[in-house]
What we know:
The chain is α+β, with helices and mostly antiparallel strands. The chain has two domains: about 1-60; about 110-245. It contains three helices and eleven strands, in the order ααβββββββββββα. The chain has helices spanning about 1-60, 60-95, 240-245, and strands at about 110, 115-125, 130-135, 140-150, 170-175, 180-185, 195-200, 200-205, 215-220, 225-230, 235. The strands form three sheets. Strands 1, 4, 5, 8 and 9 form a five-stranded mixed beta sheet that branches. A four-stranded antiparallel beta sheet has the order 2-3-6-11. A two-stranded antiparallel ribbon has the order 7-10. The longest helix has about 55 residues, at about 1-60. It is globular and about 50 Å long.
Amino acid sequence: MFKLRTSRTRLAGVAATTVLAALSLTACGDGTGAKNEGAGTSTSTNSSSDVVPAVSVATPRPSGSASATASTVSKNSSGSTGSGSTTARSKRTVRTPAPKATATAGKPITCEGSNTRTVAAPLTRPVNHMLLTVTNTGSRTCYLYGYPAVQFTDAQSVPPVIEASQPQAVVTLQPGESGYASVSLSATDGSGTDGRTVKSLAVHFFGRSLSGSVGAAAHPSLPAKGVYIDDSLKVSYWQQSMDDALDW
Length: 248
C-alpha cells in the first residue's frame, strides 16, 4: 500500500513535472511570440507613425509648390521690374527733346511801342504832374533807354529832360514788368508861358545811342478834358520804380 501510493505519488509528480515542463515551454513560446508580436507591432506602429508624419508633411509639402510659386512670383516680379525699367527706358528714348533756343531768343531788345503798353495818368501829387507807365507786353526782356520823348498834340519839339533824374543803370523790363517816368506839365507858381490845353499825346522811344527815336510810338489816351501844359514842360528819365519817378 505504501509502495503503491509512493509509486502513484511519483507518477503524479512526474506527470505534474511533465505538465509543468510543457506549460513552461508553452509559456516560453507564448512569451517569445508575444514579445515577437509586440516587437512586430511596435515596429509596425513605429513604421506607421513614421509613414503618417511623412504623408502629412508630404501632403502640405505643396509648400514645395508654394516655394515654386514664390519663385515664380519672384521671377515675375523681377520680370515686371525689368519690364518697368524697359518701359522707363523706352519713355526716355521717345521723349522729344526741347528745341534749342535760337541765338536771339533770349537777347534783350529795345522797348518801344510795338512791344509795350503805355498809360498816361495825371497826378494830384506832385501837382501839375503826369505819370507815364510802360509795361513790357512781349516775351523778351527789353531796355528803356534814356527818357520819353513826349509830343503833345502838334508840338514841333520834345521837352527837355531833368538831368538830375538820370538813374545809374538802364531800366530793364522783364516780360510783364513796368518802368516809369514823370512829366512836369506846368509851373506851379504860374511863371510858365504859352500855356494851353492839349488832348493828344505821342510817346517816342530812344535807342541805345539816344540819337533818335526807334520803333513805333505809343499813343496813350488823355482825360477827355485834356491836360494843361506850358513852356516849363519837362520829363524825368525812365525809372525802375514808381517812387523814383514821383521824386521829380
